[in-house]
Design a protein that fits this description.
This protein has about 180 residues and is mainly α. The protein has helices at about 1-20, 30-50, 60-80, 90-115, 125-145, 150-180. Helix content is about 80%, strand content about 0%.
Length: about 180
């Protein structure tokens, strides 16, 4: 049952994410489909963390994509909260999102490096996602100061994270589809 709920929210996220990317930015359809995309992706990513660890469904790649999707959606939406009139500095939630992803990424690099030396299958995925996560979160911390003052930086951060979440959802959809074919 959980797998079907995950597939449903993943599908909703996929459709609304594609819609949000293809329509006029800032318009009503973009904003509404973006909100549905965000909620669907958070729900789908949270469920994927459980599904990817279930017996007979273990899937490291799906688990890592779930973590990244959560981070990307949350950080992408938080970028829009910066405003030169109301929010000039990052708050605890901003630091918590990026800090948690940073720590998880460091653990991934360590685990992946250990796995490579132990010849554990797919350990390089940990290293790849870990390094990518470290780079993104370091950029978050460097950009926190600029986001309130620079509209372009805020939009770049939002766009980059949300498109990243859409790519992650497409990847997860394909991985899940390929796994069900096996």
């Amino acid at each position: 049952m959980l797998i079907y709920i995950h597939a449903f929210f993943g599908g909703v996220g996929l459709l609304t994410g594609i819609t949000s990317v293809t329509v006029k930015k800032g318009g009503l359809i973009h904003k509404r489909s973006g909100k549905v995309f965000s909620y669907a992706m958070v729900i789908s990513a949270l469920i994927s963390l459980f599904v990817s660890r279930m017996p007979n469904h273990e899937n490291l790649f799906l688990f890592l994509i779930g973590i990244f999707t959560l981070y990307m959606v949350l950080a992408g939406n938080r970028a829009l909260t910066f405003n030169s009139k109301t929010k000039l500095k990052p708050d605890t939630i901003d630091y918590l999102i990026s800090g948690t992803m940073f720590l998880v990424s460091v653990v991934m690099v360590i685990a992946g490096t250990y796995g490579v030396f132990q010849k554990v299958h797919n350990s390089v995925l940990y290293i790849f996602f870990g390094v990518f996560g470290i780079l993104l979160t370091v950029k978050d911390f460097l950009n926190f100061v600029k986001l309130a003052e620079n509209r372009e930086a805020k939009l770049k951060s939002h766009l980059g994270r949300m498109v990243g979440a859409l790519i992650a959802s497409i990847t997860a959809f394909m991985v899940a589809g390929l796994m069900s074919v096996r």
